[in-house]
Amino acid sequence: MRIKSQKDFFAGLMFTIAGVAFAWGATHYTIGNGARMGPGYFPLMLGILLAILGLVVVFGSLVVETEDGEPVGAIAWRPLGFIIGSNILFGVLLAGVPSLGIPAFGLIVAIYGLTFVAALAGDEFKAKEVAILATVLAVGSYLAFVVLLKLQFPVWPSFIAG
């Protein structure tokens, strides 16, 4: 068979590989059954569904004809670097790196850092819009994770909160 849509083929392949990896990783935990689910049940089912979705997309890329074959273009290194960097920055700001002497800055600062750095990945950067988005995300995250779910992690910088 000939690949008729490169984008769909590689996207489906990525979904399939990620789904199989999650399902395989879930087998290291107790699976249980539908009535008494163990900690590995949900990731196993999610991994299986993701792998099936990927196979469906791969099948579609081999069957459905496209006009130009939808070739995969060059890798956008700049946006990729900013997105990955923003996630790393989020982790560092949230928990700190004690071995390097970086204190925990907490959830609010981490979300602002993540949002501003990730926004640099786009073609346009509008500081006012990014600040509004970061504020909405910070308030929503605080309400969801700290107030509703009562998760215990630093919300404010450790040198302020104590």
TrEMBL record:
Q: Where are the transmembrane segments?
A: 41-64, 76-96, 102-121, 130-149
Q: Which UniProt keywords apply?
A: Membrane, Transmembrane, Transmembrane helix
Q: Which InterPro entries match?
A: DUF1468 (IPR009936)
Membrane recorded as keyword? yes
Pfam families, alphabetically?
TctB (PF07331)
User: Does Transmembrane show up as a keyword for this record?
Assistant: yes
Give all residue intervals belonging to the DUF1468 domain: 11-154
According to UniProt, the name of this protein is Tripartite tricarboxylate transporter TctB family protein
